[in-house]
Amino acid sequence: MKTDPAKDQAELLRLRQGDDRALDRIMARWERPLFAFAWRYLQNAADASELVTETFVRLHQQRVRLRADTNLSAWLFTTLGNLCHNLHRWRRRHAALSLDAPVGDGEGEALIEGNSRLVASDPAPDDAMEQAEDLAALASAIGHLPHDLRVTLLLHYYDQLPYREVGEIIGCSERGVETRLYRARQQLKLELAARRPAHAGRCGRGECLL
């Protein structure tokens, strides 16, 4: 999404000065991109919604402690990314909860379909089924990436943030972002090749994946 740092800083200043309506405006601007990020990370709409809400709660709680020049988008995505990572790790430690449970709503699926370059306009029925399988395989492969690679990939390819802004969020240089994206693509190719060799043959260099 297109960011507007000046507008974000102005709203953050108003929030720090006690204007709670500024929080409503921040939420209206950032709720959907944050939800999209969390959904792609967790593959669960209820969890994504809950963690986005928690992110805004923390913003309100910490509003006075934040510096006036805080990069709001970086703060929001960093906070949400950490929350997603913590929940994912908790689930992995509790085997009774399945990480592969279906989402069960159309909103999350539409978010992936709207951002993936695998989706063509008006595909034939056979192609549409194949594309749906590709999307499911891709989403699962992304879910198996390490936290740092997953966040970097989602922010750049799906949220369309440039290297500089991704670097501010994950705390590394633009060159570091480029390196992480390369590693993420390589791991995705290996994961997809193991799952479905034919798919890997079509996407061997990653053009149709990201």
Q: What distinguishing features does this structure have?
A:
210 residues, mainly alpha, Rna Polymerase Sigma Factor, Chain: A, Arc Repressor Mutant, subunit A, 2 domains, 10 helices, 71% helix, disordered C terminus
Structure, briefly:
This protein is an all-alpha fold. It has helices at residues 5-16, 21-42, 45-61, 72-93, 106-115, 125-143, 147-158, 163-170, 174-195, 197-202. The protein is built from ten helices and no strands.
| Structure summary, number of beta strands | 0
- How many helices? 10
Uncertain runs are 96-122, 199-210
Head-to-tail CA distance between termini: 16 Å
What profile does the largest beta sheet have?
none
Domains, number: 2
Which superfamily, in CATH terms, is the homologous superfamily of the largest domain? RNA polymerase sigma factor, region 2, helix turn helix motif
Helix content: over 70%
CATH class of the largest domain: Mainly Alpha
What sort of overall outline do the alpha carbons produce when their principal axes are compared? globular
H and E string: HHHHHHHHHH
Structural class: mainly alpha
The fraction of residues in strands falls at under 5%
| Rg over alpha carbons | 18 Å
User: What is the third-level CATH name, the topology of the largest domain?
Assistant: Rna Polymerase Sigma Factor, Chain: A
Q: Roughly what is the average pLDDT, rounded to an integer? A: 80
CATH architecture of the largest domain: Orthogonal Bundle
